[in-house]
Amino acid sequence: MERISVQPHFKNAKHFKDFWQKGNGKQLIDFSGAEVSFNDFEKFASYFYHVDEIGDEVVKDVYFKKKFHEASREIENYIRNGVSENDIVPESVKKLFTQTQKIPDWLDYNLIRSGAELCMRSNLDSLISLRDYCLIGGYDYAYLNKPLIATEALKKGAVKRLSETLDFWVNVTRYDALKIHAKGYEFAIKTRLIHSYARLSIKKHYKDWDTENWGEPINSWDMMATYIGFSLVFLHSLQKLGNTFSIEEEQGLFHLWKYVGYLLGIPENLLPNDKKQATEYFHLWTSVQPPSDKDSVLLAHSLLNESLENPILKFNFQRKNLRYLHICCTWFLLDDEVCKRLQIPEVANRKLFPKTKILINKIYDTFVSREARIKKGNKSQMKVLEDYLGVTKNSNFH
């Protein structure tokens, strides 16, 4: 089927111009020193219709030919023990593990370690950034959300979805997590195959998929944007909340997510090395994305109301207060126009909590050592993950 070439349809739209001329996009340009233009648009546009074919073939050869739990066990065995050229396994499995077991020439484990330390050192600010800027901000891009709607993510519920995102993020950002066969490496391979499974299921069962406008489900360009969320947008959020970071930590964060992206099958030329590149890449991608639609609003409110549904906090007043704090952070971190489009509720004194957080971070940075902050942050993040997994594994959150 011949593709209609992708165009930056929304480059003159109000939401696009507002974002890049006076909103968070302008802040990202100032933050990164990016030089944005449409000169390289054609280099990226074709990836709107590009997918991880290797991952798709593995799903067809393993998951579609066995019971799901049997296929999962088989894949876990390959991940943990490796695959060699002489193993009697499907050719697609050999291709996948030939790629993921090959350490790229550019990989620097010391840089990855610095990136992981920044993630841990930022303690609960990391989790606030992921939730109230990266995730909820991503819902403003209507086409990006379509795979979530097609796979009925709203029925699964925000508690389960947040738990899965947290489980992935925590496990790829610990010390040595991305060494071959380690836990973060395992999470990356499994996530890659979940993406392929979802994509093939959407193409088979979701008859209303609009490939021309939405791209292929979970396409490589959308994947690039998602992982820029974990690097560039995450870093910008930490800065907004009063966190400081060294040049090495910043480089390390981008290096960590570049390698995670590589393991996930995102083409290497889509993986930015630094905040300048990431901003320039992100600028091009946003030009093919319309603003929030009704699905965006439903997803945003599902995430906001997660605090009320989640039984981790025992009392209702605690849950309501947590929801209030997340709403305050969302207004503080995102553009007002984005918040209005997503119909984020107006609340009183919404700047008080974020401003207090900034003040506490400055004091904390001055009086507590970096090593102590890394240790404390790791412990706090692992505790939150443990709480979420306890709720989702022992309840009806499916």
Short description:
The protein is mainly α. The chain is built from 22 helices and no strands. It has a domain at 38-48 and 109-165 and 207-393.
Describe the fold and architecture.
InterPro entries: Lcp-like, MPAB/Lcp_cat_dom. This is ER-bound oxygenase mpaB/mpaB'/Rubber oxygenase catalytic domain-containing protein. Pfam families: MPAB_Lcp_cat. Residues 154-347 form the ER-bound oxygenase mpaB/mpaB'/Rubber oxygenase catalytic domain. This protein is mainly α and 398 residues long. It has a domain at 38-48 and 109-165 and 207-393. Helices cover 66% and strands 0% of the residues. It contains 22 helices and no strands. It has helices at residues 14-21, 24-32, 41-45, 53-61, 68-81, 91-100, 109-121, 123-138, 146-150, 153-156, 158-172, 183-205, 211-214, 220-240, 247-263, 275-286, 294-304, 306-309, 316-333, 336-341, 352-367, 370-393. Helix 1 crosses helix 2. The two termini are 37 Å apart.
Keyword list:
398 residues, 22 helices, ER-bound oxygenase mpaB/mpaB'/Rubber oxygenase catalytic domain-containing protein, MPAB/Lcp_cat_dom, Lcp-like
List the uncertain runs.
none
- Compute the average pLDDT: 95
Number of helical elements: 22
The string of secondary-structure elements, in order, is HHHHHHHHHHHHHHHHHHHHHH
Shape, per Cα inertia axes = globular
Strand content: under 5%
β-strand number: 0
Helix and strand content put the structural class at mainly alpha
Radius of gyration computed on alpha carbons: 21 Å
